[in-house]
Amino acid sequence: MRLSAGIAIGALLGTFIAAFWGRFPPLAGLGWSDRNLFFHVPMWFSMYALMGLSFFWSARYLIKPDPEADCKAREAAKVAMFFGVLGLVTGILWSRVTWAEALPDTDPQAWWGWDPKQTFALIALLMYGAYFVLRQNLANEALRARLASVYGIIATILIFPLTFLLPRYLGGLHPGAEGTPAFRPEDISLPHRLTFYTSAIGFIALGVWLWQAQVKLAILAHRLATNTASCGTNA
Q1: What is the pLDDT of residues 89-140, one digit of tens each?
Q2: pTM here?
Q3: 10 Å Cβ neighbour count for 189?
Q4: Rounded CA gap, 109 and 14, in Å?
């Protein structure tokens, strides 16, 4: 936990300093909004990493049922959703100033343009969020943990085609779609790239740190409630 905390603090501190006070070669059509690259995309990277952790512990539970494995999968899913929502919100704000700058704030199209990647990202988050609805509606702890593990694995697998394959096939305004810039050397400068990867490491470490803290809190709460050291399977 100390390692993830140290990496997160160091990397994100460097990212904030670079993002707000650093000088970068201008990117066409972005202006100062290019600094959102250091926050929006790494938040999604952190979401993917935490979904991977949830996938691992869900599979671990199905192989060998253990309340603590289910707890770790659950807490990883919570942190993944947190970063997913942050990524979606920062994406909406970014699209507002890059795709719809000429539209008034009262126009819904200014905030949501139904770009394929943006839309599929929302669908993916809603689908993944159903994991928590499932947990809330099953009283039997063993059944809840087993079904949640299966659903969590399926939802994680579907995230990849929804947020990566389908948007690339359909195209659109979002960088990374067919015919638009992504992370090729000619798309962003070396200072952008170095700051971006530093931020990605920092946000992933922050996600792991939050997950570790969440697990510890869940263990403590369960211990206080039942006088055991288990994490438990409470939703």
Answers
A1: 998 888 888 876 777 787 777 888 888 888 889 999 999 999 999 998 888 8
A2: 0.87
A3: 15
A4: 35
Residue 34 lies inside a defined structural domain of this protein: no
Range of the domain at 117: 2-16+64-226
Instruction: Give the number of other Cβ atoms within 10 Å of residue 102's Cβ.
Output: 7
The total number of structural domains in the chain stands at 1
32 within domain boundaries = no
Residue whose entry in the numeric block shows the structure tokens 């126009």: 107
The crossing angle, in degrees rounded to 10, of helices 67-98 and 190-226 is 140
Is residue 25 in a domain?
Answer: no
- The CA distance from 109 to 96, in Å, is 9
Q: Which two tokens stand for residue 48?
A: 């993917």
Closest among 5, 88, 19 to 47, alpha carbons compared: 88
Residue 38 belongs to some domain of the structure: no
